[in-house]
From TrEMBL:
It comes from the Bacteria. Residues 8-17 have a biased composition (Low complexity). It comes from Streptomyces globisporus. It holds the Pfam family DUF4365. This is DUF4365 domain-containing protein. Residues 44-191 form the DUF4365 domain. InterPro entries: DUF4365. Residues 1-29 are annotated as: Disordered.
Length: 198
């Protein structure tokens, strides 16, 4: 059935029956926050989701002394204490493609950051978590009744004992087999809770 629509001149006209061309979704009005600041927020959201699923608590050191988060995990099965903690340094990049080939990808750290992460032995173990995201914020997430798709992925590594080799920055290798999710975090905490390394 055709519906009459008033036109700007005040006369009515009938709409032609038939399919309408598909509407292109309008680009959302995103805030003016810098992309790097948004990347930091996104990786914190990822960490919170992983910690929640793993049954861990989070705290931020204040002031920040080169470590972003403390993650704690309580379990009666731990032998060194009933609650163990690790320190987490978060990094985020869109300069590495998703599904990096070759078993590991290269990531460059300032030497001061690496020295803190590479310190060994330590009372509280540290890990580096690197999130790879799409370049465009339009591709960072999709939400629907079936779930929330947050792209792309975080990977973790333990850099204890890693040498500082560059003059100001050093490149490290992050294994792609070490996907940072709730099961990985539980396994890390089980090893630390038994007196081992992450």
């Amino acid at each position: 059935m055709a519906l009459a629509q008033p036109d700007p001149g005040g006369t009515a006209r009938a709409e032609a029956p038939g399919p309408r061309p598909p509407q292109q979704p309008e680009a959302p009005l995103r805030g003016s926050l810098a992309t790097t600041a948004c990347m930091e927020t996104l990786q914190v959201g990822y960490l919170h989701a992983v910690a929640a699923a793993a049954g861990c608590s989070l705290s931020q050191p204040f002031p920040d002394n080169g470590i972003d988060w403390h993650v704690s995990h309580g379990a009666a099965a731990h032998t060194v204490d009933d609650e163990v903690t690790i320190k987490v340094q978060l990094k985020c990049t869109y300069q590495i493609p998703p599904h990096p080939a070759g078993g590991a990808f290269s990531f460059t750290l300032d030497n001061a950051h690496l020295a803190k992460l590479a310190r060994h032995p330590v009372a509280v173990h540290r890990i580096l978590v690197v999130m790879i995201v799409p370049r465009s914020r339009d591709d960072w997430l999709r939400a629907g009744p079936g779930g929330l798709d947050l792209r792309h992925c975080c990977y973790w590594t333990n850099l204890a004992g890693h040498p500082v080799t560059g003059r100001q920055r050093t490149t490290v290798r992050v294994p792609t087999s070490r996907i940072f999710d709730d099961r990985a975090l539980c396994d890390i905490m089980a090893r630390v809770g038994a007196g081992g390394r992450p």
